[in-house]
Design goal:
The chain is α/β, with parallel strands linked by helices. Helix content is about 25%, strand content about 25%. A hairpin with an 8-residue loop joins strand 8 and strand 9.
């Protein structure tokens, strides 16, 4: 059966939303949508999907307001798929490590990868495409300084990355951000585990926890403006304006 897979890029923000679907059954999942949901719905229609059947946020975002709740309401869904530790105040469909959802014959399997946030999951599509959210970028990884203890989050991210490196070199890597973290000029939108294993600056620092902690706490760009309020909005603690 044919897998529908689309990167929906928003160059102005550097963010990437993903569409994964079964063209045979018409089931369609949207992963990490931005607040501009009309744009995503139009892209889904272009891909042949009149209805979105699943909405996933890989984590509680701190740099932009998520459109996941809006999409779930629009299409009458039971909630947004998020890790069970999200702590969101709105209706979610809690997922656990190793849990999977089916779109026809296609499988989306959740891998719990805390570090950037405590509720982060990656999504492995048919064992061959890894949606890494903010856990792994092209050439780098997601920051750990947007709430929580830096040492604890560094150790968690260290373990999460080592776990992802257990995947085959051929697995394709698709992050939620382009040109993020230390390498602001990197415009690639996809990679592979094999390439990142040797070409990712953060992964090269996985020789030991201390080296990785040093890497994760030095030379990062400024934090996103108003990130604390964005987190509150995305948790449903305050209403989206």
């Amino acid at each position: 059966m044919t897998l529908a897979f689309r990167q929906i890029k928003r160059i102005d923000s550097g963010c990437v939303t993903y569409l994964v679907g079964s063209q045979e059954t018409g089931e369609c999942a949207i992963i990490d949508p931005l607040l501009d949901t009309e744009y995503v719905v139009e892209e889904a229609k272009k891909a042949g999907f009149a209805k979105i059947t699943h909405v996933i946020d890989t984590h509680t975002h701190a740099d932009h307001i998520s459109g996941a709740r809006s999409l779930a309401r629009q299409f009458g869904l039971a909630g947004v798929h998020m890790h069970e530790k999200s702590g969101s105040k709105f209706k979610t469909i809690p997922v656990k490590d190793g849990q999977a959802i089916k779109l026809g014959n296609h499988e989306l399997r959740f891998i719990y990868t805390p570090g950037h946030t405590y509720d982060h999951v990656c999504v492995l599509v048919d064992g061959s495409k890894l949606l890494t959210g903010d856990t792994m970028f092209i050439g780098d990884v997601g920051r750990i300084d947007l709430g929580g203890d830096a040492r604890d989050k560094s150790d968690r991210l260290y373990d999460s990355l080592r776990r992802l490196l257990e995947l085959a070199d051929s697995v394709e890597v698709y992050p939620t951000h382009v040109g993020a973290a230390h390498h602001l000029g990197n415009a690639k939108t996809s990679s592979t585990i094999g390439y990142e294993r040797t070409g990712n600056g953060a992964l090269k620092a996985l020789s030991d926890r201390e080296a990785f902690f040093k890497y994760m706490t030095e030379d990062w760009p400024p934090k996103p403006p108003d990130y604390q309020n964005i987190i509150r909005l995305n948790k449903g603690e305050v209403s989206v304006p």
